[in-house]
C-alpha cells in the first residue's frame, strides 16, 4: 500500500460543504486490492490489539462496534486507513469524525478522505495509519513503542500549532459569531472579517489601540504622573539612577516598608516588595538596576493588600481578578519541595504562557521569599499553612487568579473606567493593590500600581477559582458593533466556459455603483481597473488576496475547478454563487471522470451560498438547473428561452430570473418583466450574433440585480462593457482587416467550440478556422473538436499548442483531423503544427468577406500578429 498524493482542503469542497478541514489521500492499495480484511490472516486480531478504541466507531452500521464488524466481515484497506487516521487524531486529543473513502477510475487506487483539526497533524495521521496497517498486514502487529511515538508526535504537532491563550479566547468567540478570520503573513496579526470590513488584532491589542496609549502604559512613571494629576490614587514614589540617591529617595516616600522596581520592567522581573531594611534595599536596588535598560529604578511606598487586575474594554469594566502569588498549602507531612511537585502535577499548569496556569519554578527569588517566612525547601508545613514562593502575583511565575468581578465596588469601577480613558487604551489591564476590592480605594488606602496595554485574558477566561468571564464578547462588540457586518459581498462564479467573461462583466456592472471591486480571473487579480498580479488566479490564494485587501468593498471571484479540488473554496460562504454551465472538459483530471462528478464540483459554489443569498443557475443546462435541489439559499435562473418550463414554473412562484425575450435581455421578477437592454445595443453580444455571450450577460446582470445593484446602473454597465482585445483579450475579439475579418477566441473545449460556432454560423461570407486543442484532454474530446470544426468552417487549418501537455507532437492534430473526416470527409483541411505559421497561412487564404477564426494557444501572440494588419 502506498500514498500517491496528499491534499489538504481548507474550505467548502467536493466531499463536504460543511466540513472544511479535510485531508484527501490518494492511496494505491497495490497487492492489497485483491484482499479484504477478512482474507488477511490475523489482521482483525492484530488491529483490535493495537487500537482497541476503534470499538467506538459506528461506521455505516450506526451502532458501537459497527466498524469492527465490517473489518471482521471483510472491508478494503482504504476504508480501514480512513478510520485509523481518524482514531489516531482522536487518541492524540483532536476530536474528529468525518471520513469517506471512494474508488477512483484507476484500478486499486482510492481517495481516502478524513477530517483534521490541525493540518500537519492531519497529514501525519494519514502516513501513520498506512504505516500501522502495513505493519499489521505483514507482521500481525504494530509495536506499542511505535504507536506511542506516533501519538506523541501528533500531540506535539497539535501543541505547536496552538494559539496563545488570549488569542484562543478571542477566536472561540469569533467562530461562534461566524466571523471569518485568517492569519496575516507577519507579526502574528489576525484579520477578522473580509476586505474593507476587516479588523485586525494581535493578542489583545486591536487596531483601535492607540500607539500613544500603549506607550504611555509602558512608561510606568509617566502613567503614575498623569494619573496622579487626575487625582487617582497611585503609589507615592520617585525614580533614581544612582545608588547614592537611594537614601534620600526612601525618606521621600516616607520610609520603610518600600518597593523597588525597574522603571521599564514587566512580568515582575527585578521587583522586590515589602523591603524593611537598608541591606535589603541595597540588594533590591542592584536587582532592579540590572533589570532596567536605562538603569532607572523606582522607589515606592509599599502598600498592604492583594493584587487585583481590573480589565476595562471599550470603556467598561468587564472582569476583575484577584491574583495570588505562587504558593503551596501544608498538609502536615510533606516538605515544601514535595508540595511544589504535587502542585505542579495539576494538568492546568504548563510552561510559560501556554496553559491556564504556569508551573511553579524554584529559583533564588523563591528561596529568598521562603526564607523571609522562616522556611526552606525542606520545611514540613503544618496542615493548612500557606507558604509563598513569590512576592508578586504574576500568573507566569506560578500565581493563581480568583474571579472578583461581582465583588468590585462601584466607585472602583468608575475609577478604573476613567483610568483606561485617561491613559487612552481600548483594552486596559489595571493593576490595583488593595486589601479589599469591594471597598472604595480611597477608604482603604488602595492604589493603582500600573496600567497594562495588551493585558492577558487567561486569568479572566479561565480563573483558578470563580466564574469564567466571556471577555472576548466585549472586544468583538467594540470591533464590530451590533448591526455592522464583518463581511463584504462575495460573488463566486463557476462553470466550464464563460467564467472570466462573466466575472469581468459583473465587476464592471458593480463598478457603476462607485464601490471598490476586487476580482480574480484566469488573467489576473484586479482591484478597480488596476492589475494586482498577472496569471491564472482562480484558486484560494488569489481569492485570499482580494478578501484580505482592506480597500475592497465587493469581491467577485472566478472559482475554477482546479482550486476547488486542490484546496476547497477560500471562503466559508458567499452571497451569490453563479454556475454558468457544465460541459465535458477537464474530464479524467483529478479523479473527476464523468460530467456528473464535474457538476458536483461546480455545485460546491452554489451550495456555499448563504441562506439569504442567491444561487444564479443556468436553466438551460439540466445539470446546473438540478443544483437548485441541493442549495440552502434562494435560486435565480437565467435562460435564453423565456418559455423554458423551469423559468415558467419559477416565475409562477414569484421567483427571480433573467431571460432573452423578443431581442431583449430582461429581468423577470414574478409577473413583472424589467427590460435591461436590447441585445443589439450590448457590445459583448456582437450585435446579438453571439448567443453564448447573451447567456453570459444574463448571468452577470442577474447576479448584480440579485445582490441589489440598481437596474439603471446595470443598464449603463452592460452598454459600456466591451469585449475588445484590450479589455478582454481572447474573448470574441473581432478585428476588421478591410477586406475580411478575423475573430480571435480562447475556446478550447467542445462546448466552447460550439459557442463560437453559434456566432460563426451567423456569418454570411466564407469561414476559415485555425483550430487546435490542449493535449491533456481525452481523445474523444479532441475528436469532437474536429467534428464541431467541420460543422462550423468551410476550410480548416489544424495547428498544435507549443505545450503538448504530455502527448507526442502531432497526436492532437491527428485526433482533430480524425474528427473532421468523420464529420465531413470532403472538407478541405491542412495540418500546420506551428501556430504562427498556421495563422499566417489562414490569413493568406482569406478572400473578400471572409471570416478567419483563430483559436490560439497564445492569445497575446495571435493578437500581435493581427494588429499590424489592421488598415485603418
Ligand atoms: P507585570 O508585568 O505582571 O504587570 P511588572 O513587572 O509590570 O509586572 P508591577 O506591575 O509594577 O510590575 O508590579 C508587580 C506587582 O508587584 C504588582 O502587581 C503588585 O502586586 C506588586 N507591587 C508593585 N508595586 C507595589 C507597591 N508599591 N506596593 C505594593 N505592591 C506592589
Ligand atoms: P477558463 O476555464 O479558461 O478560465 P472561462 O470559463 O473563464 O475559461 P472565458 O475566458 O470567459 O471562460 O471564455 C473562454 C471561451 O469560452 C470564450 O472565448 C468562448 O469561446 C467560450 N465561452 C464563453 N462563454 C461561454 C458560454 N456561456 N458557453 C459556451 N462557451 C463559452
Ligand atoms: Mg503589573
Ligand atoms: Mg477563466
Automatic annotation (TrEMBL):
EC number per UniProt: 6.3.2.29, 6.3.2.30
Reactions performed catalytically: [L-4-(L-arginin-2-N-yl)aspartate](n)-L-aspartate + L-arginine + ATP = [L-4-(L-arginin-2-N-yl)aspartate](n+1) + ADP + phosphate + H(+); [L-4-(L-arginin-2-N-yl)aspartate](n) + L-aspartate + ATP = [L-4-(L-arginin-2-N-yl)aspartate](n)-L-aspartate + ADP + phosphate + H(+)
ATP-grasp domain: residues covered: 224-480
A molecular-function term among this protein's GO annotations: metal ion binding
Keyword field contains Chaperone: no
Keyword annotations of the record: ATP-binding, Ligase, Nucleotide-binding
Function: Catalyzes the ATP-dependent polymerization of arginine and aspartate to multi-L-arginyl-poly-L-aspartic acid (cyanophycin; a water-insoluble reserve polymer).
Family: In the C-terminal section; belongs to the MurCDEF family.
Subunit-structure text: Homodimer.
Protein name, entry field: Cyanophycin synthetase
The organism of origin for this protein: Stanieria cyanosphaera (strain ATCC 29371 / PCC 7437)
